[in-house]
Amino acid sequence: FLDQNYIYMRRTPAFNSAMRRILGQIKKENPKIKIIVEIPTYPYDQEYLGLSGKIMQLKDSWNRTKLSGIIDRFAVINDGSPMQDLWGIPVIPFINGIDFNKVSPKCVKNMSGEIHLLCLSSFAFWTGYDRLLVGLERYYQNGGTKNFIVDLAGDGPELSNYKEIVANSQILPKHVVFHGWISG
């Protein structure tokens, strides 16, 4: 990293003293380097759950007050609300997704009549695929007739919960395929 002009990284799962020390050392050895840290959701303090989550949130809160002079910009995914800075560091706001006003939809003919949903993720509670699965089951219980196929590709702490939802359903096993972690 020492001969590069910039570092772009994502904050995950929290700001900690090790990350702060490493970035501080890089900045010390190469003062011209620009360090940009992406924050995928903001605000995020409410995402820390349980006792261990609250401890992590306290560490994050303390460490983020020590980032000025190390991090040059935060890239923050938000709803487009104006943000000038975060913890005294300038923000580059952007939206996470597609501006449908700038992209023309393509007409695709689906001869099978099936609707496939591909879900690629490191499954965590905030991805919300549990709601998709429960909603799909309710759709069929209420007379839905379209044939949805949900392909779940990935791994993570919520995967076992998703598998349990499908296993406990008489409807979902015909509509949900687990692929596990896929690379390449």
Quick synopsis:
By secondary structure, the protein is of the alpha/beta class. Helices cover 27% and strands 26% of the residues.
What does this protein look like?
By secondary structure, the chain is of the alpha/beta class. Helices cover 27% and strands 26% of the residues. The protein contains 4 helices and 8 strands, in the order βαβαββββαβαβ. It has helices spanning 17-29, 50-64, 129-141, 159-167; strands at residues 6-10, 34-39, 73-77, 85-86, 89-94, 114-122, 147-155, 176-180. Helix 3 packs parallel to helix 4 (159-167). The longest helix is centred in the first third of the chain and has 15 residues, at 50-64.
List keywords for this structure.
5-stranded mixed sheet, elongated, 184 residues, 26% strand, 4 helices, 3-stranded parallel sheet, alpha/beta
Strand-helix topology:
Layout: E1 6-10, H1 17-29, E2 34-39, H2 50-64, E3 73-77, E4 85-86, E5 89-94, E6 114-122, H3 129-141, E7 147-155, H4 159-167, E8 176-180
Helix pairs in contact: 3-4
Considering DSSP H and I runs of 4 or more, what fraction of the residues is helical?
25-40%
- Distance from N terminus to C terminus (CA atoms, Å) equals 25 Å
In the sheet with the most strands, the strands line up as 1-2-3-5-4
Q: How many individual β-strands?
A: 8
Strand fraction: 25-35%
Order of helices and strands: EHEHEEEEHEHE
What is the SS-derived class?
Answer: alpha/beta
> Mean pLDDT, rounded to whole units?
86
Shape: elongated
